[in-house]
């Protein structure tokens, strides 16, 4: 059981990395990256289409990662 969860955790880790790298960039230019924001900070629109899908996938993979990590910690302590 431990090895199965560990394998699942490693696969989930790779999938999280891929999902984060596939998300579109939100930075317009280098100046907004250095200043920490852009002038239209409060005019952000809700994510749609591919961007919204990738955000949901990343959240789901993060929850799975957290659950698997807790399960592995529980199994290793008993």
TrEMBL record:
It comes from the Bacteria. InterPro entries: SecG. Keywords: Cell membrane, Membrane, Protein transport, Translocation, Transmembrane, Transmembrane helix, Transport. GO terms for molecular function: protein-transporting ATPase activity. GO terms for biological process: intracellular protein transmembrane transport; protein secretion; protein transport by the Sec complex. GO terms for cellular component: plasma membrane. Belongs to the SecG family. Involved in protein export. Participates in an early event of protein translocation. This is Protein-export membrane protein SecG. It comes from Secundilactobacillus paracollinoides. The lineage of its organism: Bacteria, Bacillati, Bacillota, Bacilli, Lactobacillales.
